[in-house]
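Input:
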Amino acid sequence: KQEVTQIPAALSVPEGENLVLNCSFTDSAIYNLQWFRQDPGKGLTSLLLIQSSQREQTSGRLNASLDKSSGRSTLYIAASQPGDSATYLCAVRMNTGFQKLVFGTGTRLLVSP
Amino acid sequence: ETGVTQTPRHLVMGMTNKKSLKCEQHLGHNAMYWYKQSAKKPLELMFVYSLEERVENNSVPSRFSPECPNSSHLFLHLHTLQPEDSALYLCASSYHPGAGREQYFGPGTRLTVT
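Output:
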């Protein structure tokens, strides 16, 4: 059974810092991996999607990497801003059946001015 | 309206009530999903509908009953719920689920069972 773990569970940094969020998964037979952002009490916003054949994806100040063989992904946020404060969720899409998404429990990020 | 919408946004119900959650997608997708998000737990997939046919039921208790009348609408009918069912219920949609397509999420319904 696929399990997705995110470390740390919570992170508090001052504005301007570069930071790394970690995601690990137990079954490397994935189709792709997706990072989401969730604001308090809200739905999920997709940030980056990395196909299993890719190593990384970039969007603005965000860079996500994928090492499928070791079951790891990182989300790098450059020059953090207070508006980046949210919970970041990692999800892997399985390579079987209808390719369900399996989520981690998230990292709650607080960026202080 | 664009994207995925959910109503109501907040719902408080007693254990003996019957209520329904509604989801509507305006993206032309043909697959829809219900997820449950409880405090300090990962999102759990509850149901998947593809072309209005249920293709996944993730061992969800029968007090949750989904309905997908067409590819744009999805309902979750609730009856005789328990306090532990209090959670954020998220709806999502995508193109055919077997094609690895990205899912788009609604804002969720915050459910409190008293």
